[in-house]
Task: structure prediction
Amino acid sequence: MQKFFTLRGWVQALYAFRGTGLPRVAEFIRKMQAKRHPDAEIVVDDFEGGAKFVCHLGEHMGSQIYWRGSYSGSQLKVLASRLSPGGVFIDLGANQGEFSISAARLMGECGRVFAFEPSPVMQKRLARNIALNGFAQVSIEPFAVADEPGRLALFSPIGAFEDGTVNAGLPTLYDRGSDAAAQTTVVAVTTLDDWQQQRDIARIDVIKMDIEGAELPALEGGQRLIQRFRPTLMIELNAVTSRAAGYTMQDLIAWLHEQSYELQRIDDDGCLAPLEIDRLQPFQDILATPRP
Result:
């Protein structure tokens, strides 16, 4: 185990030399270790300033967190600037807990994190990371979120990325047909409005959405909540997943504008830039801030 930690320090140092060929060397090592040790599981204790996190080296997110320090570093940087002690954070598509664990550490014991994760496999990994950190302020909400409550099939893609890792965090409510083989599980679905009313939540500061195409349905099913609390929104825009769900990225952007939100693009370095609707990329993360 010690050899992994020693190598990890060197690899993280190589990633820091942007603009050179050294990050490519770091990526080569990461991919090589994923293929050599697909079942390796290591607990780090320095995630986002001192939290513990279980990293599966053969899994896409775990591999990135272990070798790079984070998977969603640019978004986590923005999140840190939007949360304060005692706040309330909703994590839609919590996966293994990268955002939930970071938010819980930032907001402290008086904060609340509601981590929505419908996949039974991811729920177990999420629960383990929460328990490792003793974060009683994090609640696992075992639901998918859409525009209507009910029970739906959750499609979990099967297969490896070109880097040799398996991405276990891509379950979706929307079948991509022949695009990818998938396992299916029937899961409970709620709307944000129904959930808030049932739980009697009195404050919401930030909502993060990475739910593989269900972003617009989740917004539509939470319109009353959004109008009442005016939370900051962090949303993944993805042309492929939105198309599978029957809408476009432009549709989602138009909906946010109708709700009086200002939109910015989150760049790889965690900086914010104007979102140019006529120059959208196939994939980008955005920050939506309510207008005064």
The mean pLDDT is 94.
